[in-house]
Amino acid sequence: MTDRRWRTFVVLPQLPERLQPLQRLAYNLWWSWNPDAVFLFRRIDPELFETVEHSPVKLLGQVAQSRLDELQQDDGFLAHMDRVCTALDEYLAGSTWYREVSQRKPGAHEAPICDASELRIAYFSAEFGIHESIPVYSGGLGVLAGDTLKSASDLGLPLCGVSLMYRLGYFRQYLNQDGWQQEFYPENDFFNLPLIPEWDSQGQPLTISVPFPGREVYARIWRIQVGRVPLYLLDTNVPQNSPEDRGITGQLYGGDQDMRVRQEMILGIGGIRALHALGLPPTVCHMNEGHSAFLGLERIRMLMTAHGLSFAEAREVVAAGNVFTTHTPVPAGNDMFPPHLVQHYLSPYLQQVPVDWGQILALGRQNPHDPNEPFCMTILALRLAGASNGVSKLHGRVARHMWRNLWPSVPESEVPIFSITNGIHTQSWLSPEMTQLYDRYLGTRWRERPTDHDVWKRIDAIPDAELWRTHERRRERLVAYVRRRLIQQLRRRGAPQIELKWAEEALDPETLTIGFARRFATYKRGTLILRNLERLQRIINDKERPVQIIFAGKAHPRDHGGKELIKEIVHVARRPEFRRRIVFVEDYDMNLARYLVQGVDVWLNNPRRPLEASGTSGMKVVPNGGLNLSILDGWWVEGYSGDNGWAIGAGEEYTDYGYQDEVESRAIYDLLEEEIVPLFYTRGSDGVPREWVQRVKRSIRTICGYFNTNRMIQEYAERCYFPAHRHFATLTADGAKQARQLHAWRRRIEDNWSKVRVEHVEARASDPLRVGNSLQVQARVHLGDLHPEDVEVQVFHGLVDSLGDIPHPETLPMHPVQATGNGLYEYRADIPCRTTGQHGYAVRILPHHPDLLNPLATGLICWG
Hints:
Rossmann fold, 864 residues, single chain, alpha/beta, 4 domains, six-stranded parallel β-sheet
C-alpha cells in the first residue's frame, strides 16, 4: 500500500446550548475528585458511563442526541449541572493556602518566599495517574504524581506537571487459562481524552524540537487541566518525525535502553523547552524519580546562553533551583545506561554546550574517574539538585546508605538526602458515602484543611453504628463489583457455565474481607499468605467466622517472577476449598483500586523490609474505615501506633529469605486467628463490633491528618520549593553576578582545601562529667590562604554505640577566639552534657558561603 497523507478534521459532540457547561466540566479533571460532579456525568447515562470507563469526554461524544434533548428539558438535571458549575467556579476563585502564605508577613526567623509572584514550579514525572480514563500511568509512582497535582491545585500552588503523552500508555492485563498474565495495548484516542491542544501565534500546533543524531525530533504540546493546575504532555507522534521517532512516546516503560534514553531526553530536555515555548520558564524544577534528570543539562545550557556563564557557573544556579525525589530502594531499580549510548544520543545536543564529555559522564557516576561505570540517571539527578529526598523516614535512611559513596567523607547519617513522607489526595480515594458522613459530623473543613489534626479528632462524634453501616455498604458494593468483573473475565476466557455460576456466588458481603492489590514485584511477596494452605483453609472456611481475600495487580511484562506469583494465586483460588473465598481480579487500575480501598476491612502489605520505599495504598484504606495489616516498612513505620492497625513482626530485617517468609507468614496467621478475626466478629446486640470500630476510629484519628498529599506538598513547598526559588532568584539576579561569585569562591576553596587541617584539639573538664555540666573544646586549625568567613568549624558529638560510632550526631559551631598568624586560628565551643553515657566528639571543618545550599553536598570535609 502506498504512503498516503490524509487530510484530517475533528468532530466534537453537538451539545445543546443549555448543556454547554458540561463540556467545560469534562475538560477539567476537578470533576474526578468531586462526587457531585461524578454523579452528574453518571446521571446522563449510567450504563454508557461504565462502558466508556468513566470518561466524561467519551460520554458526551457517544450519548444519543435524543438523550441530550431530554436533559435540556430536565429541570432537576439542569439544576444539578448549574450547582456543579458554581462549585467549580467557587473552587477556582477561592482563597488558598499558598495565597495566604505568600501574602503573610514573615516572622523574625522566617525568610520571605522572595518575589512570590515569580515562583513557577515544574513537576516532572514519567507518568501521572489522575483518573482511570486517562491511561498514562502504570502504578504507585504515577498515582502519587496525580495526587500531587490535585493537592497542588487545592493549595493554589503555582505548579505545573510535565510528562509524555503515550499513544499506547501502559498495558492492559488478562490471564490465560493457566493463569499466566497476558498483555495488550489499546491505543489512546487523543481526541476522546480531555486533552487541550496548545497553539502557537500562527494558530498551528505548538511544537518544540530536541537535537538527536542526524536530525531534530519534534514534539507537540498538549494540556490536561487538573483543577487550577495544568499538566503539559509531549507527543512525538507528529508528521515531522520519522516512524521510529514517532514511536518515542508510543508506550510507557516500553522498549529497550535505547528507547528509554530517547524518551528521557524528550521528557527532560523537551519538557524544559516546552515550558519556555509556553512562556512559563520555571524557577524550580522537581524531578519525580531520575527519568527527567536531563532537564538539568538543558537548564544549564539555557543559562549559559542567556548569561554567558561557564558550565560550572550555570550548574551552581541550576542545582539551586532543582529538587529531586528518589523512590527506589534498590540499585537495580535506577536507570543506568552504557556510556557510549548516552554519548551517542547527547553528542549533537552538547555541541551547543562547550563542555568536556568526561565532565558530563562524570555527573552520572559514583566514581567520576571510572570510564567503565554506567551512566546513572539517579546520580545525575542527585548531582544536579540542591535538595534530594526519600519518600519515608525509613527510605531516607536506606537512600543515604545506597548513595553514601557519592560523598565519601560525609558520615552516612549526614548524606544530603532527607525524607518527606508520601501521602494521598484524600478526596480522590474517599467513597461518596464516607464523604457524606464526614460532612455531616466533621463539617467541611476536612476537605479544605485535611492536615488539621483537630478536625480528625472529631471522628469520635460519629456514632459507631453509623460508621459501621456505612462501611458495610461499601463492602457489599465491592463484592457485587468483583463478581461482575469475575464473570466478565471468565466469559472472555470462554469458561464453562459452571465456572460462571461459581463466580456469581464468589465472596460474601458479610465476611471479613482482606485486600491485597499492588504491582506484582517479587519483593512484595504476593503469595506470602498462601505459604501454609492447610492453616489458611482453616482460617478462611471457619463456619462461624469466615475470611475472604481479594487479590489484584500487574507484573511488569518482563518480570517472570511476578507472573509466577499471579499464576500461583489463580491456581490456589481454583481449588474447591478456596473457590468462594479467594479471587484474583484482572486488570488492576484506579477504578478497581477505589472499590478495593473503599470496601475491604483489612489491607494486607507484606514486602521485604526495607524494600518498600513508602507505599500509599494502605493510606487510602484508612479514611474509608479499613485497617492495615502490614510489615513495618515504608510509611507504616511512621503510621503504626500499636492500636490503629496491626504490624507483622517488629521491624526485623533478614538475610535468610526462606526463614523470613516462614516467620512472617506464621505471624500473619497468628494475628488473624488471635486478634483480627475475633475482633471483627465480636458483636454487640445491635450487630456492631464495638472494639473493631474503635480501632478504625483510632486509625482515622492518627493517620488521616498527616498521610495526605496536602501535608506532603506543604512540606515540599516550605523545605524545598521556597528556598530553591529564593536561591535561584538570588543567583540569576543582576546578570547572574552572584552565581559567578559563588563559583569563583568554590574554585578558590577547592584549590586551597588540601592546606586545611585541624592541628590540635584539647578538652578542658574533669572526667567523668555530670549532667548539666559542659565540656569546653578548643581547637587550633590551619586554613592556609582561606579565611574564617570561608569555613565553619564544628564539634561533631553524640552518644557512642557499641561499635564506636555516633549514630545520632549533633553539631555545634565553634567560634574563633584568636588568630595566631601563618593561617592558624584558635576556635572554642562548649558541648552541653544533657544525658548520661559514653559520649564522643570530633572537630571538623566545612566550607561556608551564604549562597551555599548545603556544605555537606560539596563533599569537602576536614576531620580532626
